[in-house]
Structure formats: structure tokens, C-alpha cells
Amino acid sequence: MSLLRTLFPTARRLLVERSLRELDLGAAEHVLVIGAGDDPYRSLFPAAKRYVRSDITPTPAVTDLLADAHALPFARESFDCVFASEVLEHLADPERFVREAHRVLSPGGLFVLTVPFLFHRHGHPFDFRRFTEAGLRSLFAGFASVEVTPQGDRLHVLSDLVTTSFAPRPFLFPLRAGNHLLGLFPGSSTTTAPSGFRVLARR
């Protein structure tokens, strides 16, 4: 199935990867990754001296720490970057998580987050909610600055909704081959129907 997902990715996945590659995170030295999974993010942090990969379920030879994102086992101001890609929608109490991220970030530290908006319900192990841009800005109101960038538009959303119609059966997965081309286009910055958002919040 992993090869199938690589050859026929969702538009959402390609949008997330593209928007993360656009960032310059090379200065981050103390990094906490929440929901690391198999950790495709390490190359984003070439200067990291401390790189902690946390999750609620272990991935062999990858996971450094089993931890609940609602109660991070770290002292105040332990990291200059907290990173969470496609995690927020799976948390029962996102407000508590954001407060915890703020607590463990050093002054001026950066919280990098991606989250879906118009995307099908998915597991890991629960899927609780979707946030609008206004909702995200409200959620991160305690940070010194916040930048919310939409990812994709209706075309990306339609591709994902159609090709996941029979999930988990991969009947329409071959149609996702077109997402490799669609993923080259980030979509409109003024769209009212993005696939999701990237958030950069500075403590």
C-alpha cells in the first residue's frame, strides 16, 4: 500500500509537502516533532542539534518518545521549533495542545503546523474537527504573530473527494496520478475552499 500511495498520492499530501519545502527552517537547533510517524521531516532541519520525534504509537527505529500532545513532558522554553503536520484534527483538545506548544517554545520560537480543511474523514485514530482560517487565528491568538496560508483550492479538493470515494478500497487510486501535475500549482491565495492550511506562529 505504501508504494501505491507514493505512485498515486492524494492532492492533499502533495500540497503539504510543497508548502513545507517552501520554508527555511535551517536555523532551528532544538526541534520537537509531534505526530512524527515515520518522520519524513528530518531534512527540513539540517542544523538541528536536538531533534525529538514524538507520537502516541511507536514507529520502530524512529520514535524517540511516546507522549500525549496535550501534556508534553518537557520544561518551559525547551525548543526553538515545534512542528506538527496533519495532527491538529486528531486531537480532542486542540486548545490545550496549542498552549502546551507555546509553553515549551523559547521566546521567538516557531510553531509550524499544517491542518486539513476540506478533506475526507480519516483515522490516526480519531478525526475530530476542521478549522477555518478565522478559527486558526483565534486558536493561535496567544502567540506574538501568526501567519495562516491556504493550501490548494477546489480542484485539489475535488480530486481528493472523488478519488477517495471507495476508500479504503483503491478502485479510483489510479486517477490520483494526475495529482502529480495538480500538485505543481498551489492554488489561489484567496480561495474560500482550500484543501487545508499551513500555520506559522511565532511565540
Plain-language structure description:
The protein is of the alpha/beta class and 203 residues long. The protein has a single domain, classed as Vaccinia Virus protein VP39 (Rossmann fold, 3-Layer(aba) Sandwich). It is built from six helices and seven strands; from the N terminus they run ααββββαβαβααβ. Strands 3-2-1-4-5-7-6 form a seven-stranded mixed sheet. β4, α3 and β5 form a beta-alpha-beta unit. It starts with a helix and ends with a strand.
Secondary structure elements and pairings:
Layout: H1 2-7, H2 11-21, E1 30-34, E2 50-55, E3 65-66, E4 79-85, H3 94-104, E5 105-116, H4 133-139, E6 145-151, H5 154-163, H6 179-182, E7 196-202
Parallel strand pairs: 1-2, 1-4, 2-3, 4-5
Antiparallel strand pairs: 5-7, 6-7
Spatial separation of the terminal alpha carbons:
39 Å
**SSE run:** HHEEEEHEHEHHE
Helix content: 10-25%
Whole-number total of structural domains: 1
Extended strand count: 7
Give the full name of the CATH homologous superfamily.
Vaccinia Virus protein VP39
Shape: globular
- What's the CATH class label? Alpha Beta
How many DSSP H or I helices? 6
Order of strands in the sheet with most strands: 3-2-1-4-5-7-6
Class per helix and strand makeup: alpha/beta
**Uncertain parts:** none
By CATH, the topology is: Rossmann fold
Mean residue pLDDT? 94
Could you give a short account of the major beta sheet? 7 strands, mixed
Q: Radius of gyration over alpha carbons? A: 17 Å
CATH architecture: 3-Layer(aba) Sandwich
